[in-house]
Amino acid sequence: MPKQHLNVLSYVYIVEFIRRMNEREYYPKVAEIRDYLAKKLDADLSNRTVQRYLKILKDEFFIPLQKLKHTGGYRFDPAKMDDETVALLKNLQIMAQAEYFRQILRQSPDFVRYFSFSHTHFKGLGIMDQLIRAIHERRTVRIAHKKFIDKQSKIRTVEPYFLKEHDGRWYLVGMDKDKGEIRNFGTERIEGVDITQETFLAPDLTKLKGRYRHVVGLMLKEPEIVRLKFDSFKKHYFKTDPWHPDYEIIEETEDYMIVDLYVGINYELKQKILAYYYGVKVLYPESLAKDIREILRETLRKYEE
């Protein structure tokens, strides 16, 4: 197996193993992690190799792993993970999953018959390297961007700040110099990139990214408390795949669950609510409940025409 694939799998296996052991109030030592990895990867590994993986996870991927002085075991503390680290770990898991399928197909291409995949689109990845270089060098770009409703693309001059992922799609976040405001540009709708010689002063990225902390999706709105009530079925879906990491369960019974989110009320949040159909009800604020009721009434009117 190529080294880079082995590393990705190792990183994910290490975190998952330590996390599971910690849930049982046990903190595995290097030798135990080595034995687990050796069995999972069917490979010979040394303690030194495992120690190197642990250092990379902590220093380069910022995974909150702590070596306990009194036992020498390792503890994983997810409470110390910020949004960026959570997203990074998620993408490492996706990469490991891809390697898992690669290994299966290496055994026999015929095994693909036993899987069913969604029709996921990966448009826009071809320009990622150009955008990353422009961001790193702090150079303004001219992009040919085409909105879904437009027939032709338009040239936009943008100061590229960072790339943001949402629901499997990548977006360029930057200052639209033509409009004088920070905007999001879906990379799958960027048809061309021209990196100019014009440089710019980068903003405080920590502060800028912080504006997205209380957002479901990409549309920035002032955050406020949104209270939702999930029925006995949909509450399990929300708990396993929450719409936002910062939520609080206010009350839960066998029949329902009441949750508070501190987020901006935007288009993406309304989409999430509507996707749960009758399984969720907006309790607060009334303005959001009113919007959802009107959308549902308009939907019903279309079926009555």
Order of neighbouring strands in the sheet with most strands:
6-5-4-3-7
Secondary-structure element string: HHHEEHHEEEEEHEHEEHEH
What spatial form do the alpha-carbon principal axes imply?
globular
Radius of gyration from CA coordinates: 23 Å
Topology-level CATH name of the largest domain: Arc Repressor Mutant, subunit A
The first-level CATH class name of the largest domain: Mainly Alpha
- The percentage of residues in β strands lies in 25-35%
Mean pLDDT figure: 86
Which CATH architecture of the largest domain is right? Orthogonal Bundle
Low-confidence stretches: 1-5
Description:
- The protein has 305 residues and is of the alpha+beta class.
- It folds into three domains: 103 residues, Arc Repressor Mutant, subunit A (Orthogonal Bundle); 80 residues, Roll (SH3 type barrels), CATH 2.30.30.520; 82 residues, Alpha-Beta Plaits.
- Helices cover 40% and strands 26% of the residues.
- The strands form three sheets. It has a five-stranded antiparallel beta sheet, with helices on one face.
- The N and C termini lie far apart (60 Å).
- The N terminus is likely disordered.
